[in-house]
Amino acid sequence: MDYKDLDEEAKERRKKEQVAFRTKKRNSFRFMLLSSVFEIIETVLIMFLLFVFASLLFFKVFKINPAGGVGANIFQIVLVLIFIVGMILGFIVYKKCARWYILKFNLKDKLNDEVLIHYFKEDDIKKFEENLKR
Question: Count of H helices and E strands in the chain?
């Protein structure tokens, strides 16, 4: 950047804008990194809980023997379904938690617009702000 033609006030304004941009970028990176770690942990936890629930149903309620035959095939199908459902529920829970966290701690001003667009539509921000005020 060439600052020779600008007066002092414009220089200071530009420097502040650059610092604010870098700060938002750094905050956005940190938020995305930590929220990704959170998403992985909570998705694995959801899958584990679904697995425990399915195991209880299979072995305690329906008393199905997974050692061989039809029981083993059914249990394998259920494991695949648990994985798929766990991933979908993980995405849903992650997005809701991230939205809540951004609004609760007023991070809209501290994050890049690209990050906010990932979690919100324009109307969503207004709705969540109204719900938090109640």
Answer: 4, 0
How many angstroms separate the CA atoms of 115 and 100, rounded?
14
Confidence label for 63 from pLDDT (cuts 50, 70 and 90): confident
pTM for the whole thing? 0.78
Q: Are 85 and 125 in contact (CB under 8 A)?
A: no
**Whole-angstrom Cα distance, residue 22 to residue 17?**
9
Integer Cα distance of 94 and 99 in angstroms: 9
HSE-CB at 55 with a 13 A cutoff on CA atoms is 6
Scanning the structure block, which residue is given the tokens 């259920």?
78
DSSP 12-29: HHHHHHHHHHHHHHHHHH
